[in-house]
Amino acid sequence: MCTLICTFRAFPRWPLIVAANRDERLDRPAAPPELWRGDPPFIAPRDEAAGGTWLGLNSAGLFVGVTNRFGVPRDDRRASRGTLVTQALRSHSASALHQALKSTPAHWFNAFHLFYADRSAAYVTWSDSEKMTQEQLAPGLHIVTERSLGSDDRARTELIRSRWAQFGGDEPTENGLAELLRIHSEDAVGGTCIHAPALNYGTRSSLILFMGEVLNDTRLLWAEGHPCTAPYASQELLVRTLADHSARA
Q1: pLDDT digits 0-9 by tens, 198-240
Q2: Does the N-terminal or the C-terminal CB of the chain have fewer CB atoms within 10 Å?
Q3: What span, in angstroms and rounded, lies between the C-alpha atoms of 35 and 2?
Q4: Can you tell me the distance from the alpha carbon of 45 to that of 54, in angstroms, rounded to the nearest whole number?
Q5: Do 23 and 203 form a contact (C-beta atoms < 8 A)?
Q6: Which helix (H) or strand (E) holds 68?
């Protein structure tokens, strides 16, 4: 996943709003969101190549999403970043996950940016595979891409912020967030919706999440493919199933 737009505690009805696109090789197999059982269970798509995921929401109301970090060489001996996300989604709160990550060796995974939030707190942890850095996020708008946090992504970040007033407004809507995720650029990889077939690369899927104060008041939408052409489908049944697990816990 390469573009993650979120607001934390910026709107009274929605403690957390997330709009995210995953950019990946076109031939890397993946499956749409499903229920992953465990303690706690979570909703997440599946990377069929490595078996992990790039984002998800668990029954405790914790959202986790990862991007890679541009410019750091990949080492295939390290664990998949998708494993980092599945492990993170077993946490019962963002603050507990934040503490757990303090003891995670940086060299275990290839370089990453990990965003995680619930209704009470939001954080980002990032690594260059040599050093881990952690930050607690204040209420407001936050943007994380593969080039964030000192890796020179001013252009895309500023592009999104410049459109935020137009599509965010007093309270973001599904259609407004979808428009933010459909931005194209003359530079093949300069927008939020990427079309680069010559590079065997592009936006593969898209998520919009409105997290309510309870799971039953949470809206999750998923587009399988480029968000400029693929429709967003409600994942209401999955969310309801997750809420039922939370009620029984």
Answers
A1: 999 999 999 999 999 999 999 999 999 999 999 999 999 999 9
A2: C
A3: 23
A4: 8
A5: yes
A6: strand 63-68
Q: Comparing C-alpha atoms, which of 1, 80, 86 is closest to residue 41?
A: 86
CB atoms within 10 A of CB 158: 11
Token pair for 115 = 């965003």
CATH number attached to the domain at 3-248: 3.60.60.10
Q: By three-state DSSP, how is residue 159 classified?
A: helix
CA distances from 29 to 19, 24, 49, 118 (A): 22, 10, 6, 29
Cis peptide before 105 (omega within 30 of 0): no
- Chain CA centroid to CA 73, Å: 22
Asked whether the predicted pLDDT for residue 19 surpasses 60, the reply is yes
* Token code pair at residue 219: 């809206």
Q: In sequence order, which residues have a C-beta less than 8 Å from that of residue 214 and are 6 or more positions away?
A: 243
Q: Which two tokens stand for residue 192?
A: 């939020």
| 116 three-state secondary structure | strand
The ranges assigned to domains in the chain are 3-248
Output the pTM of the full model.
Answer: 0.94
